[in-house]
């Protein structure tokens, strides 16, 4: 195999296959390419693909790596190239009993978790206003990252009202998962560690199998992931990790840069190779990215070089409004596409998913096909979740959460009371609800109205389970939707919304067809697993000519000829929270570095002077990061004419001079918004501003929709819209 396309350092890394190796290098320096070549080289040297494990962060990265390796050496289907989660799942499916699960366990995704926590809060009489499910789940997840279960949490925290409540929910949450034969995402990793700790044979099996281990994007591994890898590599130390400390963007999820330092400690013989040449970006982009990230204090200084040309200056455009910003981006893309660029060349990388909406609008308006890469959106739709719940029950009859989701979906006359009655029966009989309902004795207790349809549903699901190995996944899907009456209910309702739902269910079928086409041995279990694991970037199809929209987080490891980074405003990017701590700001800055270094030829930076977020319109201030970019590299001229006024769109880079001199200070968007409303209302006394959360003695909590000097219009959670007289109404801000 020829390695002549690689530089000397890269070749050195490729050829060192025994022992431990750390490749530490900046963006676009060929870390992933080196890893790919290293795998191919090993196989070329006679090492069996079966003995190689390569771990990546996204499924997309895994499949890309596999296809690149296959390009080099042909088929390597028995090599494990996969994400941490996929790897652990495979192992757990083989040894489920060792960790107290049945083989057909299911995975709960974020929204399943939320539902479960919400149910628990309700049952325990804990207020979900005071303890938001999302907050509790964050605490649980943080705990699990530190390998602490509910008891561990209790032991570690000071006992008070708050920690007691969280413990109660945590404990019940654990039990409920176990009872439902289900795991959440954190459990997947945690249980793999448990498996290795409890079962030496299992650990030995994988230690022997994976004689050579590689981890890409190592800077983003958390404690548990590190521990797993360390256990697997313990006996042979043939471990190669690849990373860039400047690109650590998952600290908030427990990623720990110290893993790199620990690596050198745990594997003292490790060799470190640094790559310094960047092959991805033109010089201006590289320099701009560096001019931002060098402001981080906690980093090892390193500067990449490239022998590419310096490239265009980086256009920066400050739009009047967020809408206009989106329009500007779409027009730029349209313009360049007219000149012959493929739409695949373009990516719009934003900070938050919510930003996609405006770009979707402007791209549609300009007739430019696009793709939004955020797994959530589609799979979060109600009908899709329902269909998935039906399919899960086929796989796992213990899954009470799924049963609760669909028992009255479509309407079967099963009110809360009837559902709770079934739950109680199940509890007494120590069964799941599905199992209980499969017994005629329990079915008989249902009200007459519900009896027939519930019976039909239960029989249908049970039948699908019995026959699942004889049926195609798509047949199971059809059977479930038709026989349980789900489709019919949608058809009968005859609304536009129902039609859209049916379309989505058809789209879901194409997901199944795709799976059936590609899978070696398609099963409903494997299909469900893939769905749950499908990370954001996964529905990304390179063959289709479209503009790509995604968050900067999910763009990790990818590259595009032209990148747009919109929303460069304090409070959005960096986000408001970043202003609370230096560490938070530095993480956002690394994210900015990741975003900018995705660009190969052109990078566009934009911001909007006025932006509407969460229903509130704010004046914005240009991003701290923008102010950090070396101004010599920016240009405000390479832009179009303004639609309305006809003046040059170009905001000359000089306009930022004033900011650069200002002290570093967080921007208080809320304060500005209030001042704004106040000015409009023409009164100095207005205490309530649009967007304020308020509490009324009688009506409870609500949101201020309008405010002038005499009245306040509030949308209350309880009674809807009310116009109240200021000064009289028992209203206070919260
Ligand atoms: P990131 O930090 O963003 O993950 P990376 O270090 O993994 O980047 P790669 O994605 O492997 O970098 O490579 C970046 C680009 O440079 C790719 O297009 C790759 O094909 C190219 N490249 C890598 N090494 C070389 C080389 N020696 N000669 C020419 N091109 C190269
Ligand atoms: Mg990479």
TrEMBL record:
Its EC number is 5.6.2.4. It is an enzyme of class 5 (isomerase). SUPFAM superfamilies: P-loop containing nucleoside triphosphate hydrolases. ATP binds at residues 25-32. Keywords: ATP-binding, DNA-binding, Helicase, Hydrolase, Isomerase, Nucleotide-binding. PROSITE patterns: UVRD_HELICASE_ATP_BIND, UVRD_HELICASE_CTER. Residues 283-557 form the UvrD-like helicase C-terminal domain. The keyword GTP-binding does not apply. InterPro entries: DExx_box_DNA_helicase_dom_sf, DNA_helicase_UvrD-like_C, DNA_helicase_UvrD/REP, P-loop_NTPase, UvrD-like_ATP-bd. GO terms for biological process: recombinational repair. CDD domains: DEXQc_UvrD (cd17932), SF1_C_UvrD (cd18807). GO terms for cellular component: cytosol; DNA helicase complex. Residues 4-282 form the UvrD-like helicase ATP-binding domain. Signal peptide: none annotated. The keyword Protein biosynthesis does not apply. It catalyses: ATP + H2O = ADP + phosphate + H(+); Couples ATP hydrolysis with the unwinding of duplex DNA by translocating in the 3'-5' direction. It comes from the Bacteria. One of its GO terms (molecular function) is ATP hydrolysis activity. Belongs to the helicase family. UvrD subfamily. PANTHER family: ATP-DEPENDENT DNA HELICASE SRS2, UVRD / RECB / PCRA DNA HELICASE FAMILY MEMBER. This is DNA 3'-5' helicase. It comes from Aminicella lysinilytica.
